[in-house]
Design brief:
164 residues, 0% strand, disordered C terminus
């Protein structure tokens, strides 16, 4: 005997009629506000930033609540993954993103390139990066900006630039 249950068309329609309404991102955020940043939370972030496990340090580098001095320290972390999390975090200060644009890891420089809050002068620098991957990411991001500025009827479907 099978445990698969088949619903009739009428049952499927009834389920569609009674499904909950979807919330917009703003409505969901209003219903579930982020907890306030407390001194206790900041102390935990400071403690975890020096954890021997790089995945723990990545979590700190990914937090929007990370203090600027921790971003600066984590931007010099020996682990590429930690520096990459600093590079892609939208809360990372511009001066630190400028430093990471010179990182030895092309992955870290790539994350800088796709961060939407990276300064224009850094994007110009990364446009001539020694890595073809980083240059391709800069072109892809620029194509997204061009697409947003194009008239509605002329927008093409956005796809990353292939790296050959």
């Amino acid at each position: 005997m099978s445990c698969i249950r088949f619903n009739t068309p009428a049952q499927r329609q009834a389920m569609r009629n009674h499904r909950p309404a979807m919330l917009t991102a703003e409505e969901a955020a209003a219903l579930h506000p982020a907890p306030e940043v407390t001194e206790s939370k900041l102390r935990r972030l400071r403690l975890l930033a020096s954890d021997p496990n790089p995945k723990i340090r990545e979590a700190v580098a990914s937090s929007y609540n990370t203090p600027v001095d921790l971003f600066a320290a984590l931007a010099k972390d020996p682990d590429d993954g930690v520096r990459g999390c600093v590079a892609k975090n939208e809360a990372t200060p511009c001066d630190i993103l400028r430093e990471l644009a010179d990182d030895r890891s092309e992955t870290v420089r790539g994350w800088v390139a796709v961060n939407y809050f990276v300064p224009a002068d850094v994007m110009e620098k990364l446009a001539s990066d020694r890595s073809r991957t980083v240059r391709s990411l800069v072109k892809w991001k620029a194509s997204l900006a061009d697409e947003e500025q194009a008239p509605e009827g002329q927008r093409a479907e956005s796809r990353p630039v292939p790296v050959a």
